[in-house]
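Ticket #4471: structure output looks truncated?

Reporter: J.K.
Steps to reproduce: submitted the chain below (296 residues) through the standard prediction queue, then opened the result file.
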Amino acid sequence: MLKTNEDTLIMTAVQGSVIYPGAGGWRAAHTGEAVMLPGVGGITYNLKVGDKAFGWTADHAEPCVSTTASDQREGGLNLSYNYYSCVGNEARILNGEAKGIRGTVTGTHGGCEHVMIDFPDEALAVMTHEDKIQIRAHGQGLALLDYPTIKIWSMAPNLLHKMGAEEDLQEKQLRIPVAAIVPGGLLGSGLGRTDSYKADIDIQTSDRAYIEELGLDRLRLGDVVALMDYKSYYGWAYLKGAVTIGVICHTDSITAGHGPGVTTLMTAPAGEILPMVYPDANIGKYLGIGRYRSNP
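Returned output as attached by the reporter:
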């Protein structure tokens, strides 16, 4: 088993609420068309971890339930809520008809500062936008004791141990199963920001032929992917030989420079991480959530 410092990590409570679905009016697509589509936020009944990231009549759609601590982006409450919440953390509904039902954090979204949470259908059927949600935040500060140059962001220890990572002791390298490998040249929205510790970076999808050639059009929400030649220590930055591992957190976009979002999970600067392609590398499968959930 990987040696970590998880026994020293603080587990704390952060609290948010369901955010109303956003509407920004007309937007210009990268093709030049003016479109008006459903986007971020809300309680989404038919979009979950395990569903395709492409092909929806939507823009930046977030799976299942989108939450926030404050309407003020980058404000103190929201900064804490987004920072402390880690992929794989347990969430619990505090009020309303769905009170007591538990879910799982599946990603964080940058520009809108949302935390996405997967809940079972029994909760979705009765949830409202007045519902409050508490997350047992646990994971920021997580470190691999034998791999000091690998930085971990926004990942709960329980997810780390279920990802199927294998150690190559001779090469001092960690092999990580991923559903796809993304060339650094495709990374877009998120570049220039320094909040890789809590947000996401988009895969540009305006060149559909190239996306299909790479097989990225088959990406699913929750897929673990490798972003090549990018280090995410203090923001997403190009560095030849670096690798960032992340999870697909929202759907495709029609906006220039945008596409499926990737929440950062781990990063290393010089070959310490070796991505290995496995089509079923998805957090839904690891955590038993979304389309992988076993409903009674």
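Triage note (M.O.): checked the attachment and the full token line is present. The mean pLDDT is 94.
Status: closed, working as intended.
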